[in-house]
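Hi R.,

As promised on Friday, here is the backbone we talked about, encoded as structure tokens. Could you run it through your design pipeline when you get a chance and send me back a sequence?
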């Protein structure tokens, strides 16, 4: 998996937006890429939602299940 991610990073950022003049340029571009990857990209395995949307839904569902379980235990 890491190899696939590295290949995407190189293809989508490093080669596509280069040439780079300084290490700082690469670092800033990498920060932007990581933010985009974690917050904005649409992923087919997540029903074309962003990772943050899928994570938010997961935790909302988990919380509602815990609340339902707790209410059943109290009755």
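Update: got your reply. Pasting your designed sequence below so it's all in one thread:
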């Amino acid at each position: 998996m890491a190899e696939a991610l590295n290949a995407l990073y190189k293809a989508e950022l490093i080669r596509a937006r280069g040439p780079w003049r300084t290490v700082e340029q690469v670092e800033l571009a990498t920060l932007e890429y990581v933010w985009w990857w974690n917050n904005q990209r649409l992923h087919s395995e997540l029903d074309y939602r962003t990772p943050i949307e899928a994570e938010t839904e997961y935790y909302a569902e988990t919380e509602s299940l815990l609340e339902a379980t707790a209410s059943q235990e109290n009755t």
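One thing I noticed while checking it: The mean pLDDT is 90.

Thanks again,
M.
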